[in-house]
From TrEMBL:
Protein's recorded name: NIPSNAP domain-containing protein
Organism in which the protein naturally occurs: Caenorhabditis latens
GO cellular component: mitochondrion
GO biological process terms held by the UniProt record: mitophagy
Residue span, NIPSNAP domain: 425-522
One of the record's GO molecular function terms: phosphatase activity
Membership in a protein family: Belongs to the NipSnap family.
Amino acid sequence: MTIDRISKEELLANYDTFLFDADGVLWTGEIPVPGAIEWLNLLLDDKTKKVFVLTNNSTKTLDQYMKKIEKLGFGRLGSDNVISPAIVLAEYLQSNSGKFCKEYVYLIGTENLRATLENDGGVKCFGTGPDSIRDHTDGDFIHHVDMSITPKAVVCSYDAHFSYPKIMKAANFLQDPNVEYLVTNQDYTFPGPVPGVVIPGSGATSAAVTAVTGREPTVFGKPHKPMADFLLRRAQVDPKRTVMFGDRLDTDIMFGNANGQLSITPRQQNESEEPPQKQGWISKLLKGQHVDPSSWQKQSHSSLLSNSELMYEFMTHNYRPGEQEAYLDAFGKYKKEMNVKNPSIELVGSWTCSFGRTRDQAIHLWRHNKGYEDVDSSIALHGKDSGIRAADNDVAKLCGRRKNLIVKSFSYWREPEQRPPTHVYDLRSYVLQPGTMIDWASAWAKGIQYRREANQDVGGFFAQVGQLYVVYHIWAYPSMSDRNDTRHATWAKPGWDATVANTVPLIKKMQSKILVPTRFSQLE
């Protein structure tokens, strides 16, 4: 059963077992979905609730998966809370030990899956790793394959070394009807961090073997019955009081529907009476809002970069040399006009440049608290309001060049906060290679941990309108000496070098400017 809208109170009152897909629901790439950690911890604190993560990913051992879960901040989950096709398949092999114990299984899969099946399933696997056609022939066809080992089963899963010889071996082994055909899951693709890039999954490998053999496999992952049966054995769940949170209609939601459970495919809600703020679909649930379970795909990818409806504007003015005070007076009048005409457009930061490519420069950071509604308002005011136009013209007369960018805040940065007036600010701007923004976000979501100390992180932003693939990072330091000491201390931390190594290849151009606050800045 799927529904249109549901609240946290309704979920807690009517459901006892909570099932979650992982990537795309609890996290995306290496970034937790906003509110997900708090939501799971809330459920885990309630002893009447059961929580399980049902993943179709069999490329990791359970120990490796638990390390990832802990690293992402879901450390309250235990190994008994996680179920994967590899775990279900290993139990199947173990429970049928009369047939499989210490017997051979031909595995099209990863070394990690091999370790799970051998350690927990009691079988001996062969077939993993590279198997190229050139290992068998210099021609275009293979006419003979090694059949000296007769396996009890062919297991098909994700395999980066999938090849023609592997299809041929599997097909020939499966000519024997006594050889079982077992598949971890049939997800044709993996979720990935780059929209538009297809990452083939287990379903792609099993589809080829199925097409050649005509055999129908036993499938152990969602939405198939073996995983549901395993869950019933482990937790004795009541389907009518079970809810499945998933992002794939063909696996997660089909699994919930097939087993009589409530299915939710979450997205970020558009209809909210609250002001725009940093929250994803789970954050909205925790705040007592209803969530709309349709159009799920838009939430998971957007939350990878930003989960805020706030918009920011970077305004850069190159004022004429020697005219700084006159310029700031004119800008102050412009700011006053903006405050009167639209108070929700707020000047957060205002600086002049002390060191950088252009010395006679002012940079202002505006926050549009109503998002694009404020952007539209600003466009209208600059076009039709005589007071705004006059103040803007007075500023323009004192400038040689002006530009502005509409940006959003990265989800893993905090909102800009006030600093003591003696602070200096380091504005780092990066122009990235096209298509690398999500890679950048994935690396920095981890790297920001190394820069939290000394209250140095002010804000991180990426361009929406203007020059695209532009990123701004703003750092604050009590003095230039403190900046030097803090940066040296960061380099001494294990792991920071990996952030640099992962992000430098993504950069086309970068620069740093040292800024000091003007009298108008909230970030003094």
